[in-house]
Amino acid sequence: SHGLALLNTLGKVHLFREALEEAEEIFKTNLNLAQEVGDPPNQARALINLGVVYLQKGAIEAALDIFERARHLCTHTNDLRHLSISLENLGVLHHRRQAYGRALSYYHQSTAASRRLGLGTQLAATALNLCELYLAVGDRSRARRLHAIANEYITRDRMTFLEPQSLLLEGDLARSDGELDRAANRYALAINQVESGGGTNQRLGSLLWSQAELLLEKGEPARAAAIVEQALEVPAGQSEAVSVRLRMTRGGILNAQGDLDGAHSELTAAAHGAQQRGDHEVAWLAQARLAEVEWKRGNQKAALRALTGAVETIERVASEMPSSLRT
User: Fold this and answer.
1) Contact 139/158 with Cβ under 8 angstroms?
2) Each residue of 187-224: pLDDT tens digit?
3) Residue 69's Cα: distance from chain center in Å?
4) Torsion of CA 103, 43, 3, 52, to 10 degrees
5) pTM for this one?
6) Contacts made by residues 317-321, CB under 8 angstroms, sequence distance 24+
7) CB 62: neighbour CB atoms within 10 A?
8) Is the confidence at residue 308, as pLDDT, over 80?
9) Cβ of 251: how many Cβ atoms within 10 Å?
10) CA angle 38, 1, 4 (to 5 degrees)
11) Is 200 helix (H, G, I), strand (E, B) or coil?
12) Which among 89, 72, 85, 146 is positioned nearest to 114, based on CA atoms?
């Protein structure tokens, strides 16, 4: 059991450093060893970490299968601690797919299991993820309350590894209120924490993307372009999930700079990539920006098609939301 714990720690070090292939091999080895010696808790731990690797690699179906295996194992062995974590990760997976109803259900199940054991770390992580979910659907009041709850846990128990995510969401909340300078400050603080080793590198790509989008919104396309290039140089920015967002941002930058042909190329690719991945948020944003580019180019029919595509994507996501998430 001690050896399995050490192997797990080594795998998590590789995961933290985004050495995903090495992490995958270690977690697979750990899973096989745990199965051989009949150690269900370490089997669950290996399954969950392997699922996180697949999620980071963009292998969504593989991650879903692994997290479901972990959930079934933990339910069968009454392992509430790892059940809470597997449910949390199933919530994150469906959240990324913008399947908000399913994500909400898994987050609530994870919270219930965490409360039974008093797992402050899990409760804080779930509160942050719920904050992000409610902000995405426009419920800023509930998002703020959840952010405050998470920060209480983070401050009380000194969960420094969750601070970058908390700062990112604080920036997102400020941006939604039109406080762009405050948002920029929070994003910069979060990026600094990650770069100085205070958080997982996996968040760096998303943080840089948020910063680039903010600079574009502030009317600073040249600075935004520099951030996009910086993001593309880090491993997290090269993941399929983040790279398609960066292409959308680059399209917006080129549009702002008057390069309509370049903007058209980037936004068309971003919209297609987002649709292939099922990333509805990026799909409709890219289509909306593409509509503006087409209009500027004098292609009114193409602009209408792109705008219609954006509206249809929004309506499709809205139709799948439970009534509790509609504001």
Assistant:
1) no
2) 999 999 888 875 556 678 889 999 999 999 999 999 99
3) 22
4) -30
5) 0.88
6) 317/98, 317/100, 317/280, 320/99, 320/100, 320/101, 321/100, 321/101, 321/137
7) 15
8) yes
9) 26
10) 95
11) coil
12) 85
Tokens read off for 242: 């983040």
Q: What is the pLDDT of residue 326?
A: 60
Asked whether the beta carbons of 224 and 215 are under 8 A apart, the reply is yes
pLDDT digits (tens, 9 = 90+) for 239-262: 778 899 999 999 999 999 999 999
- Nearest-10 Cα torsion for 240, 231, 187, 203: 40
Contact predicate 287/304, CB 8 Å: no
The span from the CA of 315 to the CA of 300, in Å, is 22
Write out the H or E segment, with its range, that includes residue 39.
none
At residue 318 the predicted structure's pLDDT band, cuts being 50, 70 and 90, is confident
Of residues 83, 107, 80, the one with CA closest to residue 96: 107
How far is Cα 191 from Cα 187, in angstroms, rounded to an integer?
6
| Distance set, CA 98 to CA 106, 112, 132, 296, 316 (Å) | 13, 22, 11, 31, 11
Token representation of residue 149 = 């709850």
Helix H segments across the chain? 2-16, 20-37, 40-57, 60-77, 80-96, 100-117, 120-136, 140-157, 163-176, 180-195, 204-217, 221-233, 240-256, 260-277, 280-296, 300-319
pLDDT digits (tens, 9 = 90+) for 133-153: 999 888 999 999 999 999 999
List, in order, residues 6 or more apart from 290 with CB less than 8 Å away. Answer: 251, 264, 267, 268, 271, 306
Is the distance from CB of 60 to CB of 90 less than 8 angstroms? Answer: no
Q: Which residue has the tokens 């509509």?
A: 291
What is the average pLDDT across 18-27? 90
pLDDT at 306 (0 to 100): 95
